[in-house]
């Protein structure tokens, strides 16, 4: 597993030993950052369900000012920590251990706001609407949220969300669905 762009392009990341973590593939990661384009530069980036931390590390390599990585699995947390120490980026990476929804609620309570939010839950996650709804609350008014999911699944937004679906990009079994903030001021 290698970083696909930025200061640490080509740098090898440590991958999972067992099959419980499904890292975002290089092709999909590269597509994600092509979709995001220049908005990563100087961004506050949130990587939810981080797994190996490859997406957060990629964001830092490509110039994000800050990347916060949320993960609950103990082995994944160790792996993310190792990967965050591998490369010479100028942005700061921070790891938050815990359940995604609980961590998103805590970030909202602290009034954290992110320019880019990436969610890559396990493909068999039963209900993502809560996580999407919570993530929408901490997305900046000019921000973008991207959800990686199985291409054959449809993800419903909760009625109380602050997000509108913009577009879905398909890459074999994986798809990236882009969401933007709904409405404008006074969300």
Describe the model.
There is one protein chain. By secondary structure, the chain is an alpha/beta fold. The chain contains five helices and seven strands. It has helices spanning 26-36, 54-61, 74-84, 100-109, 129-137, and strands spanning 44-48, 66-71, 92-97, 114-119, 139-150, 163-171, 174-181. A seven-stranded mixed beta sheet has the order 3-2-1-4-5-7-6, with helices on both faces. A hairpin with a 2-residue loop joins strand 6 and strand 7. Helix 4 (100-109) runs parallel beside helix 5 (129-137). The chain is globular, with a radius of gyration of 15 Å. It starts with 25 loop residues before the first helix and ends in a 6-residue tail after the last strand. The mean pLDDT is 86.
């Amino acid at each position: 597993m290698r970083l696909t762009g930025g200061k640490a392009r080509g740098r090898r990341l440590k991958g999972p030993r067992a099959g419980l973590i499904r890292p975002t593939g290089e092709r999909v990661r590269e597509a994600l950052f092509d979709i995001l384009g220049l908005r990563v530069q100087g961004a506050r980036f949130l990587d939810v369900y981080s797994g190996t931390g490859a997406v957060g590390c990629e964001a830092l390599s490509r110039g994000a000012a800050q990347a916060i990585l949320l993960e609950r699995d103990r082995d994944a947390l160790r792996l993310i920590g190792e990967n965050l120490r591998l490369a010479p980026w100028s942005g700061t990476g921070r790891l938050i251990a815990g359940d995604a929804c609980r961590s998103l609620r805590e970030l909202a309570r602290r009034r954290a706001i992110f320019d880019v939010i990436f969610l890559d839950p396990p493909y068999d996650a039963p209900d993502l609407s809560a996580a999407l709804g919570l993530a929408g609350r901490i997305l900046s008014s000019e921000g973008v949220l991207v959800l990686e999911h199985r291409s054959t699944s449809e993800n419903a937004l909760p009625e109380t969300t602050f997000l509108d679906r913009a577009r879905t990009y398909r890459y074999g079994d994986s798809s990236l669905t882009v969401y933007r903030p709904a409405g404008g001021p006074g969300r």
